[in-house]
Amino acid sequence: MVKAKIAVNGYGTIGKRVADGVRAQDDMEVVGVSKTKPNYEAAVARKLGYDIYAPAENMGAFEKAGMPAAGSIEEMLEKSDLVVDCTPGGVGESNKPLYEKIGIKTIWQGGESHTIAGFSFNAASNYEQAVGRNLVRVVSCNTTGLCRAISTIDRALGVNKVRANIARRAVDPNDIKKGPVDAIVLDPVKLPSHHGPDVRSVLPQINITTAALKVPTTEMHIHTVNMEVNSDCTAEDIKKIFSSESRIRFVGNGITATSEIMEVARDLGHRRSDVWENCIWPESIAVNDREFTYFQAIHQEAVTIPENIDAIRAMMQLETDGAKSIEKTNKALGLSNDWIM
Ligand code: NAD
Fold it and tell me: pTM for the complete prediction?
């Protein structure tokens, strides 16, 4: 099988996971990853066997640090079929002219705006619409978690309205530029937060409003979601519908905190202690007429990784059926139905 050749531009929290995720598949391969500086992450990437590409003007610094780059970022792109841009929000936009010059298929992340690609992706919501596309944006972690849950309920019951409150992790665990943090920050003060409109970039038919607070943790986001549906239902019905979605996991066994979910992932030996699924507390589901509320936790570093893999498969036309791609990605990454929580 000829594998799709993938470049990962930006090797930080998301980029390193996308690279490992691509590597785990049998229908795509990593051409290389880019680093701007020869720092500890570049050294680890080399140890993991990735070819490192650097901005042409910084290649000398890599040479000097004893870790010569395999080439420039432009050279990496020229050898590849598709680039996954995992640079910080806003930087992806400035890379667009280079990608256009080379004529390479491109995936951007949720830190960029919808207009960069004109199409925002979530596998459970709109896989088929991504098939053969040249430009796709994989929505952010919070939007991914909301889209997965909302599209699952929408298919089964029809969603009339969603109201969600988001407690956002302040920073990622390795982020010493923005941390340490000790406050609860209105993010933003002026409501609604951007997450509702972002969900609508994937699911335009959904009436949704969101509010968000940044809280002093590095371990996951928590959403308190309220949905009004078009059919009568019980908590058992909602549980059954959620359990039909392979990227939703139930949390039980007395777990009441995100740190305990992360501990389960560490105990089970998940790579980088990643949790790729929405973690929903079935006990929290409370139904009132045609309205229900529940809690879900979202691991910000991991939740969009399976989505990036599916987006690659759709754009490269390696699989036109979304359900089949999701199953393949899940199996290769290690998402498992028997994950006990
Ligand atoms: P990050 O800061 O951890 O990593 C970005 C990497 O890109 C760094 O290694 C940086 O050195 C590198 N970089 C910067 N400028 C570059 C350039 N011009 N060319 C090549 N590399 C460059 O950022 P991240 O958290 O991985 O975020 C990447 C994207 O993913 C953003 O759009 C973000 O909004 C989105 N996202 C982040 C999270 C999260 O929780 N971290 C979750 C979902 C989506």
Answer: 0.98
